[in-house]
Amino acid sequence: MASVKVFGSPTSAEVARVLMCLFEKDVEFQLVRVDAYRGPKRMPQYLKLQPHGEALTFEDDNITLSESRGILRHISHKYAKQGNPDLIGTGALERASIEQWLQTEAQSFDAPSAEMVYSLAFLPPTLPSKQNDNGNGNSFGGARDVAVAPANASSTKRAASLAGSQPTSAGHGQGQGQAAGAQKEEEMMKLFEQRKKDLEKLLDIYEQRLEEAKYLAGDHFTIADLSHLPNADRLVADPRACRMFESRKNVSRWWHEVSSRETWQYVKTLQRPSSNDANAKNSSQQQQNQHNLQSADDHTKKNHQQVQQHHN
Question: Where does the GST N-terminal domain lie (predicted)?
Answer without folding.
Answer: 2-83
